Automatic annotation (TrEMBL):
PANTHER family: BPI FOLD-CONTAINING FAMILY B MEMBER 4, BPI FOLD-CONTAINING FAMILY B MEMBER 4-RELATED. InterPro entries: Bactericidal_perm-incr_a/b_dom, BPI_fold-BPI/LBP, Lipid-bd_serum_glycop_C. Gene3D superfamilies: Bactericidal permeability-increasing protein, domain 2. Pfam families: LBP_BPI_CETP_C. This is TENP protein. It comes from Anseranas semipalmata (Magpie goose).
Length: 440
């Protein structure tokens, strides 16, 4: 039975991360700060709503005390290494009594939060403990004796807040689900990031390991196997940035592999040559094309692209077969050239997208693959086609990659103050989070 089950779920056993992220204590502090207005709104909904007896009686003047205002004084998210997070909230309440002078109260709440994997594979915020307290704040004019909080507890249902503590933050479970949404790379290719295990909590932050998957025309692409298991690199010191992302060399190779499967690198290039000008160098061309026609280059990948990451340098190797021919729409090839091209890559981040562009062709080697016009020396191939390949291949690649590739992110946040560093075998992205203003 065990052997049978292992055959049914082979993919699960071989899953391994190829990228990941660390949300730092600075990032947690930012999330806590921008959650304050939302927390106040939710507390007002929970605590200012009339109680059922008042609604049933229909009394315009309820006999019990009413909360007149709520102000969140402090909201904090702190790391509990190897366990989770602690949420702390301090809020001032104004209480308008049915008689006598207005009163003030302080609501304090401590909750223990955990991040787990849901059955559907999403990260999910859960609560294991919640401790609310409510005490009346005495003014200097009032009697020094501290009044009991029991009366307040009867009037204000603080336990209601603990029923859904997570909603006090900025819709965290909706935000976490957006991390695993599929994002478009090209019209037919999508990328998706899947968490492989529950996050790890440490003093450095919350570390999440992710595996990238791609779909082409709605079908999952079987990616090449990573030669080396990837793990988040250890940072030399605590980072002031909110978030650290690490993308392995295998991540980039998988991206270009998926784009190859999507046909994104099948290029059609108009050469400056014509059949007449080529016939001056290769006489047999004139017998194939009595009239002068523009020469076209149609390039396809003959094997998968490969990305190489070194310190301060990223490069892409393309292994192309370039078919040389003429005729439109009935293209007829008379020459095929193997072109091994190495292009330098420039990496940057705009909003939440990794922008990848080919800078220049660093190296290109041309060899004859097939010919209907006799042998053609390598030197002549370079003279005829090398300049066009050097110029046009980066243009084509940059058109394919112009939209960028979505990085793992939560839907309401974008990245700012971004620093991209290329290291051997991985790319490090340091950035801050910025909450985007919602329409309306």
């Amino acid at each position: 039975l065990g052997a049978l089950l292992s055959l049914l779920v082979p993919a699960q056993a071989t899953r391994s991360p190829d990228c990941g992220g660390i949300l730092t204590p600075s990032g947690l502090s930012y999330l806590a700060e921008v959650s304050k207005p939302h927390t106040e709104m939710v507390l007002r909904q929970d605590l200012l709503a009339p109680r059922a007896p008042d609604l049933l009686l229909g009394s315009p003047k309820p006999s019990r005390d009413q909360i007149s205002f709520i102000k969140v004084i402090d909201l904090s998210l702190s790391l509990v290494p190897e366990a989770g997070l602690r949420l702390g909230i301090e809020a001032d309440l104004g209480i308008a009594p049915s008689a006598a002078v207005p009163r003030r109260a302080r609501l304090s709440l401590l909750a223990d939060l955990h991040l787990d994997l849901s059955p559907g594979g999403d990260l999910q915020l859960t609560t294991s403990a919640c401790r609310p307290t409510l005490e009346e704040v005495q003014s200097t004019e009032e009697v020094e004796s501290k009044s009991s909080s029991l009366d307040l507890d009867k009037e204000i249902n603080v336990d209601k807040i603990c029923l859904e503590v997570s909603k006090l933050l900025l819709s965290p479970n909706e935000q976490l689900m957006s991390l695993t949404a599929p994002f478009p790379v090209t019209p037919s290719c999508q990328v998706q990031y899947l968490p492989l295990a529950a996050p790890v909590f440490s003093e450095e932050g919350i570390t999440v390991s992710l595996q990238t998957t791609f779909q082409v025309a709605g079908m999952a692409v079987p990616l090449p196997v990573s030669p080396v298991p990837f793990s988040m690199p250890e940072l030399a010191s605590s980072s002031p940035s909110h978030l650290t992302l690490a993308l392995s060399e295998h991540f980039y190779t998988s991206l270009f592999f998926a784009l190859e499967r999507a046909g994104a690198f099948n290029m059609t290039i108009l050469s400056p040559l014509t059949t007449a000008t080529m016939a001056q160098k290769i006489a047999q061309v004139s017998s194939l094309y009595p009239e002068d026609l523009p020469v076209m280059l149609r390039a396809v990948l003959r094997s998968s692209p490969r990305v190489e990451l070194e310190e301060g340098r990223a490069a892409l190797k393309l292994f192309l077969t370039v078919h040389v021919g003429a005729g439109s729409p009935d293209f007829q090839s008379f020459l095929s050239v193997s072109a091994d091209v190495t292009a330098g890559l420039l990496l940057s981040v705009t909003n939440t997208r990794m922008m990848i562009s080919a800078a220049v062709i660093e190296d290109a080697e041309l060899n004859l693959a097939a010919s209907d016009v006799g042998p053609v020396p390598a030197a002549l191939l370079e003279e005829l086609f090398l300049a066009t390949i050097r110029e046009e291949v980066p243009v084509w690649m940059n058109a394919v990659l112009s939209e960028g590739v979505h990085l793992p992110h939560m839907s309401s946040f974008t990245y700012t103050d971004v620093s991209v560093m290329v290291h051997k075998d991985y790319v490090l992205v340091l950035c801050n989070l910025k909450l985007q203003a919602r329409p309306g």
